[in-house]
Amino acid sequence: EPWPGLPPECLDPRVAPSDRIKALLDYVRARLPEGDHHVVLGLLPTVLRDAAAYAEIVGGLLPRRGLEPWMARTRIVLRDDRSALAEEDIERVAIYQDLDLSPDGLTQSLVDEAADPDAPEDDRLTALVQLAALDYSHGRFSDSIRKWGVLFKAYVQRDDIPMQALCLGGVGDVLRRMGNLPEAKKKYQQGLALAQDLSALPVALNLLIGVGEVCIQQEEWEEAEGYLSIADQLASKLRLVYPKCDIMDRHGLALLALGRTEEAQAKWRATADVGREVQYFARCESALNNLVRLHEEARMHTEARALRRELDEVERERREVEARDRALRGELAS
Fold this sequence. Notes:
- This protein is mostly helical.
- The protein has 14 helices and two strands.
- The protein has a two-stranded parallel sheet.
- The longest helix is centred in the last third of the chain and has 33 residues, at 301-333.
């Protein structure tokens, strides 16, 4: 189920920024699942336009008076040029100096860690996974596939089946982006054959989405419907509302292609409603556009006009939210 809206104090400009952050942390922490889970907040601006204002915000988050109730199960990662901490020695505050947090610096740190023979194997493999993903995002497809292959062999030796499935999905993503859809489909299916363990459910979800998308691109509608139906159920089980919206929207296409028009309509209606509720406007608008086309093709012009009015309302809401976000970012930057 979607989380309720943020508490009013989180958005109230009259409340001190550090107190608004504390209210946000309380809100998120109250919704953590049972077990040893923590909220991690990162405040790492690349530019400090007003160091004094930033220091005031950061200073309100430091445990100068010891641990306070709002700090329970919370970790905060801050950028600081010593304006907030000065030369203080505050208990439970660890200071790391001379860090390069630029994209190039972070990438180089991953390269160094992956190649460090003295680093723990888990850390080296995790770094290599991130490098394989970076290669994919930057279009270095051959490098990405090669890294995923190295990782797959390593995880076979460790008998780590969920990570083997992840590697196969990584190769499938690369092949799909390269346009080699048949081979991408094979990799996704091989990964799904491995991702049967409960610990691999998030990996299985990504594989189902990938293979479902390949089937849509190849117009293999029955297979697409089957994969996306399972993905829809799994996203609900994992309580992942945004992926669920993506899946439902694409699932509607497969249902429509199979002549299951009422089911497609219901799927898009649910996508629009959930997307609007959680402010996932892009997916909400996509579903509404699908519904408009569906009703126009059926010559149901009254219903199509009502859907267009709803689409206009959603677009207005999106613009209002974007304006508030810009104002909030400007406030924090100043």
